[in-house]
Amino acid sequence: MKAIVLAGGYATRxxxxxxxxxxxxxxxxxxxxxxxxxxxxxxxRVDEVILAVNYLAGELRSAIGDEYRxxxxxxxxxxxxxxxxxxxxxxxxxxxxxxxxxxxxxDIITNIDFKKMLQTHKDSKSEITDALRxxxxxxxFGVVQLDAMSRIIRFVEKPNKADAPSRLINAGIYxxxxxxxxxIPAERxxxxxxxxxxxxxxxxxxxxxxxxxxxxxxxxxxxYRKANFALMQQAGGANARFRNGTxxxxxxxxxxxxxxxxxxxxxxxxxxxxxxxxxxxRVGKRARVSDSIIFDGVSIGESSTVIGAIxxxxxxxxxxxxxxxxxxxxxxxxxxxxxxxxxxAVVHPHKEITRNIADSAHVM
Length: 364
Prior knowledge:
The chain is an alpha/beta fold and about 375 residues long. It has helices at about 35-45, 55-65, 85-90, 115-125, 190-200, 220-235; strands at about 1-5, 25-30, 30, 50-55, 65-70, 70-75, 100-105, 110, 130-135, 140-145, 150-155, 170-175, 205-210, 215, 240-245, 250-255, 255-260, 265, 270, 275, 280-285, 290, 290-295, 300, 305, 310, 315, 320-325, 330, 335, 340, 345, 350-355, 360-364.
């Protein structure tokens, strides 16, 4: 089986970190986001994946290469954004698709049962089967209405909560027959949801598959935090400790905590709960980190505190620094000793911070 992964978005709600790092390379519970998707596809014996790329495509290709654990990886470059349908049409020209194939958004993490979904797709003789997830508030998503045979009869993109026909949302995962490719116009922006789905629904060929496994749509920093901490819980429960780096005696870990390879933790550090530490980083003596995600290569100085924050790659946090809840520190930032970074403050890439930052301030 072949798969097309939509990986070309600008990730505007994850700026300013996404100015430098493609969303799909953001670390999630110790692995780049795209690795979760590629491993899922590999388990389903997909042998060829095409990444539909645009923004920061070079960085993505450099990180993944042309092969991932035995799967061929190709890259379909959009010269301009093509929506949700256009990239599938463009990517399909890079290979020969003669059987049912997978198309999915790259910014979701799930352990969907593709084998069960494929059986449902074949039994219903659908041209497209859309994975569906029930949520409390569907207003951020495309919402569907099903008939008694689990066929989609109506699709409403991002409705008001009161107007939503159900709480079943489009999960961004599709099984598609090759015949659908003929319905997608070439060389222009195409919305699957607005242009293609209604046509297939009228033919009663648009199936729905209820996804009961875990599913995370990583659209913003809140979603990103939730996915990291929930996946640690999934992997090891409330007492999960993932130690690949060195943790000396005298340091305290309040699980769940993930520590990446070649991470060096000094004595008397306090880590957790809900902490993800990347590779090749340092945490100084008596430093405290909780409810935070720390990317690769970061250095946190002696007696510094990071609470409920995100600190991106290769940033240097001095001694006695305090980073408050909701703060976002972009890659390659240097923060001097004794500085306080206020609640919800955002620091853009490549900045040197020598003074306190007020709550909710942006340093650009």
